[in-house]
Write a structure and sequence with these properties.
The chain has 282 residues and is of the alpha+beta class. It is 31% helix and 29% strand. The strands form two sheets. Strands 7, 8, 9, 10, 11, 12, 13, 14 and 15 form a nine-stranded mixed β-sheet that branches. Strands 2-1-6-5-3-4 form a six-stranded antiparallel β-sheet. It starts with a strand and ends with a helix. Bound molecules: pyridoxal-5'-phosphate (PLP). Belongs to the class-IV pyridoxal-phosphate-dependent aminotransferase family.
Length: 282
């Protein structure tokens, strides 16, 4: 079942637990991760925990919890939920203190939700998704998985209002990433994606897809591309922990090639699912 956790207590997600002075609530002063569990097994858990600690370090957030303790906590939460296929959202914030901008001398807050996650049906994936281009209005440190998601939320809602699934963010004419995904194009049997920098999140699925492309002998080029290059590409896809590898078949009302999901895209997703199934650790 769906369960929550806040500062030492497992709770129902409906329970009212966030103190009014919680800095996550007041300022968005914290970081988070999303981790997927397939058939009772975590997928790339260590990579997610490592990114969580890097994000925390980047905002000078220092909790008493060690990596080992956080790992244990996540394991305990999933075990308690009894869910075999779920996603784990974990947030660490700068704690509860009277509202002042300066760092308080209080313990960090740790919260989690564990919810069932149904696999995306093959029919939905094979049809692909529509997207829009949207100005990247975020800050200069998007490599931090921060709780501050207002520009992402506004862009995603704009996409939804236009009957689309994702907003592809654009800075100075170049694609950065999606509101909650990394973005790729396939041209001449080569995969292109935006290079890692402070302007995008280093996706864990991106890391997996890079390895899978290498395994398939498909060139994986980390290079900026423009909106025009994206529209001319043979295939476009996005990746994320929750979406896996998802085809984008139409952007701003115009089809990518014939508007069907790309062959390479679907192959990469199939390979990702093989990798998921081959993961041994629980
Ligand atoms: C802005 C952004 N970029 C990329 C990603 C993809 O990251 P991952 O593959 O680790 O889920 C996400 C995931 O939520 C995201 O929010």
């Amino acid at each position: 079942m769906t369960i929550g956790y806040f500062n030492g207590e497992f709770i129902s997600v409906e329970q009212l637990v966030i103190p009014i002075d919680e800095r996550g609530h007041q300022f968005g002063d914290g970081v988070y991760e999303v981790i997927r569990v397939y058939d009772g097994k975590f997928f790339m858990l260590e990579e997610h925990i490592e990114r969580l600690f890097k994000s925390a370090q980047a905002i000078r957030l220092q909790g008493d919890q060690s990596i080992e303790e956080i790992r244990q906590l996540i394991h305990e939460a999933v075990e308690k939920s009894g869910l075999a296929d779920c996603d784990v959202y974990i947030q660490i914030t700068r704690g509860v203190a009277t509202r002042k901008h300066l760092f308080p001398d209080v313990p960090v807050s740790v919260s989690m939700t564990i919810r069932p996650m149904k696999p995306t049906s093959d029919t939905v994936r094979e049809k692909g998704m529509k997207a829009i281009f949207h100005e990247d209005e975020r800050w200069a440190n998007c490599y931090i998985k921060s709780l501050n998601l207002l520009p992402n939320i506004l862009a995603k809602q704009t996409a939804q209002d236009a009957g689309c699934y994702e907003a592809i963010l654009v800075k100075d004419g170049f694609v950065t990433e999606g509101t909650s995904s990394n973005v790729y194009i396939v041209s001449d049997k080569t995969i292109y994606t935006t290079p890692l920098s402070k302007h995008i999140l280093a996706g864990i699925t991106r890391m997996a897809v890079k390895e899978l492309a290498n395994g398939l002998g498909v060139p994986f080029v980390e290079k900026q591309f423009t909106t025009e290059e994206l529209m001319q590409a043979d295939e476009v896809f996005i990746t994320s922990t929750t979406n896996e590898v998802m085809p984008i078949v139409n952007v701003d009302g115009k089809n990518i090639k014939d508007g069907s999901a790309g062959e390479m895209t679907l192959k990469l997703n199939a390979k990702l699912m093989e990798l998921v199934k081959s993961v041994q650790h629980t």
